Amino acid sequence: MISVGVVGGAGYIGGELLRILSGHPEVDITAVTSARLAGRRVDGSHPNLRGRVDLTYVAPERLPECDVLFLTGSMGTDADQRHAMVARAKHVYDLSPDLRLTDPDRYREFYGGHPAPELLGTATRGLPEADRAALRTADSVSVPGCMATAAILALRPLAVAGLLAPRVTVDGRVGSSGSGASAGEMNLHAERSGVLRVFAPLNHRHQAEIAQATGLDVRMTATGVDAVRGVQVLCRATASRDLTEADIRAAYRAAYAAEPFVRVVTYKRGNYRLPEPKILIGSNYCDVGFALDPDDGQLLLVGALDNLVKGGAGNAVQCLNIRMGWDESLGLDFPGLHPA
Amino acid sequence: MISVGVVGGAGYIGGELLRILSGHPEVDITAVTSARLAGRRVDGSHPNLRGRVDLTYVAPERLPECDVLFLTGSMGTDADQRHAMVARAKHVYDLSPDLRLTDPDRYREFYGGHPAPELLGTATRGLPEADRAALRTADSVSVPGCMATAAILALRPLAVAGLLAPRVTVDGRVGSSGSGASAGEMNLHAERSGVLRVFAPLNHRHQAEIAQATGLDVRMTATGVDAVRGVQVLCRATASRDLTEADIRAAYRAAYAAEPFVRVVTYKRGNYRLPEPKILIGSNYCDVGFALDPDDGQLLLVGALDNLVKGGAGNAVQCLNIRMGWDESLGLDFPGLHPA
Amino acid sequence: MISVGVVGGAGYIGGELLRILSGHPEVDITAVTSARLAGRRVDGSHPNLRGRVDLTYVAPERLPECDVLFLTGSMGTDADQRHAMVARAKHVYDLSPDLRLTDPDRYREFYGGHPAPELLGTATRGLPEADRAALRTADSVSVPGCMATAAILALRPLAVAGLLAPRVTVDGRVGSSGSGASAGEMNLHAERSGVLRVFAPLNHRHQAEIAQATGLDVRMTATGVDAVRGVQVLCRATASRDLTEADIRAAYRAAYAAEPFVRVVTYKRGNYRLPEPKILIGSNYCDVGFALDPDDGQLLLVGALDNLVKGGAGNAVQCLNIRMGWDESLGLDFPGLHPA
Amino acid sequence: MISVGVVGGAGYIGGELLRILSGHPEVDITAVTSARLAGRRVDGSHPNLRGRVDLTYVAPERLPECDVLFLTGSMGTDADQRHAMVARAKHVYDLSPDLRLTDPDRYREFYGGHPAPELLGTATRGLPEADRAALRTADSVSVPGCMATAAILALRPLAVAGLLAPRVTVDGRVGSSGSGASAGEMNLHAERSGVLRVFAPLNHRHQAEIAQATGLDVRMTATGVDAVRGVQVLCRATASRDLTEADIRAAYRAAYAAEPFVRVVTYKRGNYRLPEPKILIGSNYCDVGFALDPDDGQLLLVGALDNLVKGGAGNAVQCLNIRMGWDESLGLDFPGLHPA
Fold this sequence. Notes:
The structure is a homotetramer. By secondary structure, the first copy, chain A, is α/β, with parallel strands linked by helices. Chain A folds into two domains: about 1-145 and about 310-325, NAD(P)-binding Rossmann-like Domain (Rossmann fold); about 145-305, Dihydrodipicolinate Reductase, domain 2, CATH 3.30.360.10. In chain A, about 30% of the residues lie in helices and about 25% in strands. Chain A has helices at about 10-20, 40-45, 80-85, 105-110, 130-135, 145-160, 190, 205-215, 245-255, 310-325, and strands spanning about 1-5, 25-35, 65-70, 90-95, 125, 140, 165-175, 195-200, 215-225, 230-240, 260-265, 285-295, 300-305. In chain A, the strands form two sheets. Chain A has a seven-stranded mixed beta sheet. In chain A, β5 (about 125), α5 (about 130-135) and β6 (about 140) form a beta-alpha-beta unit. In chain A, α1 packs across α10 (about 310-325) and α6 runs parallel beside α8. Chain A is globular, with a radius of gyration of 19 Å. The two termini of chain A are about 35 Å apart. The model of chain A has no long low-confidence stretch (mean pLDDT about 95). The interface between A and C is large, with 42 and 42 residues.
């Protein structure tokens, strides 16, 4: 058994890691840190794990050595703390935005100053569908953002195949769990219920990550919707040449035919014709789909996923499975519910 | 025009008072206090009032004299502040629980020590359907709690007519706005969305108020549901003698035939057979209805209302309308929406 | 008093007309038709109107003469029935899509064959902010679509002022009431709850209407969201020249400073910085707002409204108020709720 | 591998059976029937199973022989069809209400005439926590109703221990999936969203089932709430003698200490102090909890579960696991999500 630690385990990504890891046959959860809840039971903040995990939070500075570490929060301004932590494990999976951008100027533009800019570019991106080969040997992995993951998976096969004109817009929609477990007044139920909150009208942070991954010229908007979990991205693009639906299907098939967690969803009838997060909650799937207007080459590419699973914890565990040579779907086999 | 002040205007009850009063033809909103937001625009925290009110919060200690004062918050431990405030107005409508119970022992049991117990019993209860005569001359009014209002209106006509055995249970359901605008982590959208949270499994505070108003032996449970507004109470009772549906209708009719804001809702078909808060949001109605099993005399009495309107701000304005001799529905004519 | 008839009164737009008209001081509801419910009480299908209207549905063929007629449904394939109906009233407000497009080719492209193509172009568009002068004398009015109204109001002042490059995309989001009261399996609660359903990935019908009204080259996508009411449109545009926020504000102000039902909503802080349907439910407002990236001239223009009010019934009544020379806000003064 | 057939696979219980069985290592889904969708792909109506099952619906009369049959729908008036079906399998799990009541008079009172009353009493009840011994050999199993299961699991240990006075009330709350996939207008999203619909004010059908299982004198009310999945029951009871919380815990512990799918949830702090369906969606848990007023012996017993899992499909599979001597949790190990 591989020993695993979760740093920042009281948050929503932390909880989801614990749910997945507690059902994973090859790992043993050795430590879960929380500065605020040290000494309290883990299932006190993650009630779905009652009877499933028997763990108590430890203070971050008391994190023991373990084989694998999952970091859920940003290092903030304290890079030393991160250094101390990652020194305690061989394999580190970082779910924060800290290492997602490789270009320091880009990082500064979207996030401000970085506490340890020398780290930028040192981690392997954790997107199995693009980075599987590198992930087999990577010991420092940076897991992409939730909306970025959906957009990259929807755009990248077509971008790589040269089928898209460079300019693309991305309209991201995300549920309230994306704001984390300690969010303030703006996430009160009475304020957040029923919203279509355009919290990033232009240049959402994930824009830089999608551009970096696809080489496209991306403009991104983001809206908070009335859901707890779920991400959907609508990517508007234009074909770079005459295209048919068959061309697009072929490009997706070439990229994803063997992928365990990407499905191409483009149906002519039914209630679920294009990717819909509603049926993905709890699962590690990212569904991608498209619509094409053959007359003028306009394209809508749609991606959907659960922001805490394929958009975070599940994707990280998939990366670990690859690194360890395990079946890639260990711990990740829940298919999602319908209806729910 | 009558000048009106709202103390604690930044909360949800405060905002609802402002919505109603800003559309009321006989009043002028003179001052709105907020300790936290003094100097800020009122429509900054109540965005539905943009273009409707042009007001700035003042600190509580700078409250000017006005004809009428609405108090939205409890006096907490500082009774002097309350005394200072109510001295500045002739008519005071208190929407807090401070003066709802008249018996100090009862108050202590349900709320703890009272900061000014000598005030208990000095205010007139603000329930027009029961207290209209007194409200015509009352200058200090205590507005009942939201779930209490629904339960009292459902139970009282039958209790007064002697149709009920003494023992009654009340199952209250309430939306998240009942927890106020400054609520904490337990009201985060991700935690509160989709809940059936039994936050008061036994002896909810409104139990004392319902008992006081009906003379019944009440047991009350309360559940937070996934709605922002809305209260529904299910009251289980037993007939004190052989009863027919006609008997119950007659008792309700005797009490409510002339009431502008109580409707008896007991239909045999359709989607809205019994009182349903969904269609009452924004309105000042309290719908009441019932079901009777003639074989064994078991009764279900149902009440529904919008907790911020008939369960708070609207009810208070109705009391003011009565006191001033105005049309009782001034400012309160919104019927509610279907569907919504 | 003006007598008014509502054709197709059992649907959601019909119900909303009845809600508004029943609180309108200058009109008298003479007749409400429903082929399916003839003989049944109106408040049986619109329970929010219990105690407010005392009306019974009549069969469409028994519609009496009235001064004003509101048509809520498409004429389908039977243009004669429409002719017979409109002959019974002097003023006709058509809320269906039948007469929204003036170009028969466009109509055919987006809707298929028209049952009475000679009628296209004969009605005055019912958008007060653009058409007030014409509406003062128009007797046949075609009320725009819900998402089209929001997009036109967000785009038109800037388009008219020549501030926008021609190519614009519109991302519309709409609640389930937009699908009507007789919708099928796809609108079951279990299927529709929690969705982000991209029901029109490209070329939504309202695209043609927005293009016609703004002269822009529009591409429109539409998504059904988990709300009963509410429309929000996100319009992506590019400035045609160097622009500042002040330029855009000036253009909006020139168009809307005197408008009773359009607010420009672009705030730097708070939870409601851009137009949000959540706080507009039940109101006749259309809020518009924007974000500008001055570096590259990209613009996000946002519009929001209640699809059944400013996106339908309320807008129609506003047109009627203009035609009759009444205060434009008669029957339409509800400000919306916060929170709700 | 055991071969399994699902009769009525297009409904919500059918879909849930397919989700669970498709992840079950010991069974092979041989046939799924649907009269309406014969010849269509199963994942067309259960989109969460895309890439998981490769099955096509067959007409009911073409059901092949299989080892195990799950029946999801009532036999209606055609008992012969049922006889023909069950003849094709050795083991039959009936999820309809047909065989839940053993007393024909009771059945008639709550459901009307039975098409094959001679079958009443012939099936073993499928409640593992009460019936495990019988289920090890039973070949005809009747799975209890969703709300009944929650109530029986909350009440039965205390009733069996003689701790309850006979009279109990049950207040059931249930999501829209309980109404099935082919429900009508009353389940339209616009009508069902946000409801607190008291659809059974007295004597809900599950009342008979709970009484039969506990020996108590039950009165049951049911409300549809704004959720797709989830059941919660609030059972009001009175202690038959002086009781402490420890007594109740002891009774629950005696019943459930070794149960894999029942947790006793009664906490003093946190957001999930009592059983809450929100965190049980997709899981096979039934959480039970309680509150006691030691002064007067009033008790609130709370049960919660996912109506399609422990309240239906999951419970049926648990019964099958028992019958086959497999690990009882095969296919049923999903813990539920938090938040969601």
